[in-house]
Amino acid sequence: MRRAAIAFALLLSLLSATLSAQNLADFEKRTTVHRLANGWTFILVERHTAPVFSFATLVDVGSAQEVPGITGLAHMFEHMAFKGTTRIGTMDWEKEKVALAREAAAYEAWQAERLSPQKDAEKLARLEKEFRAAQAEAASFVIKNDFPNLIEREGGAQLNASTGADATRYFYSLPANKIELFCHLESERFLRPVLREFYRERDVVQEERRMGVENNPTGRLVNQLIATAFVAHPYGQPTVGHMSDLQSFTVADAERFYRTWYVPSSFYTAVVGDIDPKTLIPMLERYFGRLPAGAPPPPLRTVEPPQQAEKSIVLRDRAQPIYIESYHRPAATHADNAIYQAIDDILSNGRTSRLYRRLVRDEQIAVDSGSFSGWPGEKYPNLWAIYAVAAPGATNAQVQASLRAELDRLRTEDVTAAELARFKTRARADLLRGLGSNLGLARRLVDYQRLFGDWRELFRALGRLEAVNAADVRRVANETIKESNRTVAMLETQPSSPVTGR
């Protein structure tokens, strides 16, 4: 016990010393913000510890910017951003361009007949055959995976991307002497994107939906919960898209989406590592400055109205019982965001958390439990959720009773000083981990720059976490945890049929 106490004291000392060394004033000296005339924002952070750099680009568009008929297109465009340009990924762009136009026209003709209420089966078959032939011709000019292979050949690592409800992100790392290559590749990627292999890739995305939703009971439950909790806001739409949309949106739809949302004012890029802003900024101007400014994207106008009544979903499947409760909460930019973080930590961070001790250790009615915010996004008012996976032999009714008992404790009793102290220590440690790697820091910087308009909020957030007290937790718990604000989703085990075994 004494050894553990000494170790904990040393950890606190190390955290304090490290945060002192990596405070806001120190970062400001090594950080340059440069905004191009076209609106693209760059955050440049010098870290000369190794001859490498990482970047993260956030595009301020996600599934929340989609409208009925094109759900899933933000995610689809993320896939297409790896397909290359007019210079990368093609054997002969001039010939490929003609073939792609032919493919697009053939698909539009086939789709028009497919969606017609009086479709002609013979004509439909002929048009599909013509499309498949045009698709094969266009594919004959493609150099597969040319863009990612080029980056890997030049020493790139951690190449990836992601799409959420609020944003699309692109990132990787390169040796420091490849900084101009980065400028060339990333500017070309969004200056001259080519939507090659579009319909083949659309099939890939459909399979992702099948695996994540249709063939996954948990995925179906989550999909239903979000669609039920949001009646107006596009957060209720699945980021992966509705299957009928994935089977119907076209290259022309994707091009319109790109022209509307992928304008420089929607881009935030952080470059962190062995860089020199004096030489890098002229490169950014020369390469990224080529992109035309375009019209500012329209703001999201739909606001989710206050929930007026409890909602409940029960999904029956041959799967382990799962119980989820969700409650509407403000956006991440709200002053109470740090308090929600404290609630999540106290309820579900590790074996000392309230949910683990009660449901998993003591009552043994769950094998997993937790709570979290920012679901499905955080830019707009979103959901705070609490969940548990029932243990064998336990029921969702038992889980619900214990979860709600813990929620009642939050509303009626002060959290302890020890719980708050553990939360604040872990919050400092999480900040350090986020700052530890070039890529981790780059990703955090663009998130804060986009949300708050100032990357410095990354450091100021720690002060807000430190200020959380027991009265704050009780207040937010009482404002949030209300029956009328609640959506419940349960996965109930459905026994197999004795005849079919299904």
Describe this structure in words.
The chain is α+β, with helices and mostly antiparallel strands and 502 residues long. The chain has helices at residues 2-21, 24-29, 73-80, 93-114, 121-139, 146-153, 179-191, 198-214, 217-229, 243-246, 251-261, 277-288, 337-348, 354-362, 396-412, 417-436, 438-452, 457-466, 470-480; strands at residues 31-35, 41-46, 52-59, 157-163, 168-175, 267-273, 311-317, 322-329, 366-375, 382-390, 486-493. The longest helix is centred in the first third of the chain and has 22 residues, at 93-114.
Through-space gap between termini:
53 Å
Number of helices: 19
Q: pLDDT under 50 segments (min length 5)?
A: 1-21
Give the radius of gyration: 25 Å
> What would the principal axes of the Cα set say about the shape?
globular
Overall structural class, as computed from helix and strand content, comes to: alpha+beta
Largest sheet, if any? 6 strands, mixed
> Mean pLDDT, nearest integer?
93
Q: Determine the oligomeric state from the structure.
A: single chain
Q: What series of H and E elements makes up the topology?
A: HHEEEHHHHEEHHHHHEHEEHHEEHHHHHE
Say how many strands there are: 11
Strand content: 15-25%
What is the topology, as strand order, of the major beta sheet? 1-2-6-3-5-4
Percent helix, as a range, is: 40-55%
Characteristics:
49% helix; six-stranded mixed β-sheet; five-stranded mixed β-sheet; alpha+beta
Secondary structure: elements and pairs:
Elements: H1 2-21, H2 24-29, E1 31-35, E2 41-46, E3 52-59, H3 73-80, H4 93-114, H5 121-139, H6 146-153, E4 157-163, E5 168-175, H7 179-191, H8 198-214, H9 217-229, H10 243-246, H11 251-261, E6 267-273, H12 277-288, E7 311-317, E8 322-329, H13 337-348, H14 354-362, E9 366-375, E10 382-390, H15 396-412, H16 417-436, H17 438-452, H18 457-466, H19 470-480, E11 486-493
